[in-house]
Design goal:
The complex is a heterodimer of chains A (about 160) and B (about 90). Chain A is an alpha/beta fold and about 160 residues long. Chain A is built from 7 helices and 6 strands; from the N terminus they run βαβαβααββαβαα. Chain A is about 45% helix and about 15% strand. Chain A is globular and about 50 Å long. Chain B is about 35% helix and about 25% strand. Chain B has 3 helices and 4 strands. Chain B has a 4-stranded mixed beta sheet, covered by helices on one side. Classes of the chains: A alpha/beta (about 160), B alpha+beta (about 90).
């Protein structure tokens, strides 16, 4: 049995329980209750990439980019500076409650795939974090549309990697 | 003057239906309407700048306030109401 190449995001305990880190060039789904640290892990994963010369794209469906820039300053993570240096890019898909959208008929979220790809190509990203898939699904009346978009972006991520 | 922008991603069936619905709106509005169709595959930077998730997306920019309708516009009455062009019995 060939070993899957691992990538340590720099969390010692996680390396132990995952047998060396996250599978490299694969998708990893992080499940956890509110407050369990999913966002911290996602930011850590990209911050680790920045330190190793691998730019990252952070797709946020929940917190605004400005909140993430501010909240993680105390970790010593200078997200704003990384953005200016082209080592970090946000895809801002956080809901805006002042921007009401009426729905009439079928729609899809291919635009999200277009945006992620554009960000990946713009900075030559090697890592992508989506935070969180649950928040994306919650944004739409029909959760199947969101699930389909996530499922469809999977092969795209592979290709871009 | 009414300014409308329709954002689409490629030529899907939903895109075709939305273009059809947009054409009907344009006929209704006559010369008062300025209409633009933008394919986000060709202009991905606009998708990011406008933070567009769901397409087709019709946006009424003028007159204010900005109004947005996502979908293939298959419910003309709902579209007309949202965009402020009341139709039918008034």
């Amino acid at each position: 049995v060939s070993e899957i190449a691992r990538l340590s995001p720099g969390v010692e305990g996680l390396d132990i329980v995952t047998n060396g880190g996250l599978p490299r060039e694969r998708l990893t789904l992080v499940a956890g209750t509110a407050g369990s640290g999913k966002t911290v892990l996602a930011v850590q994963f990209l911050a680790d990439g920045v330190a190793k010369g691998e730019p990252g794209v952070f797709v946020t469906f929940e917190e605004r980019p400005e909140a993430i820039r501010g909240n993680f300053a105390s970790f010593g993570w200078k997200v704003g500076e990384w953005e200016e240096a082209g080592r970090w890019a946000f895809v801002d898909a956080a809901p805006r409650f002042d921007e009401e959208v009426t729905v009439s008929g079928d729609y899809d979220l291919t635009s999200l795939v277009v945006r992620v790809r554009h960000a990946v190509e713009r900075i030559g990203a090697k890592r992508v974090a989506l935070d969180s898939t649950g928040s994306l699904v919650d944004q739409f009346e029909n959760p199947a549309v969101a699930r389909r978009a996530l499922f469809r972006s999977r092969p795209s991520c592979r290709r871009w990697a | 003057v009414t300014t409308l922008k329709l954002y689409v991603v490629g030529g899907t069936h939903a895109t075709d239906r939305a273009l059809h619905g947009l054409e009907a709106l344009r006929r209704e509005l006559g010369d008062d309407a300025s209409v633009e169709v933008i394919d986000l595959r060709e202009r991905p930077e606009i998708a990011e700048r406008e933070r567009i998730l769901a397409t087709p997306l019709l946006v009424r920019l003028e007159p204010p306030p900005v109004r947005r309708v996502a979908g293939d516009l298959s419910d003309p009455q709902r579209v007309a109401w949202t965009l402020g062009f009341r139709r039918g019995p008034s």
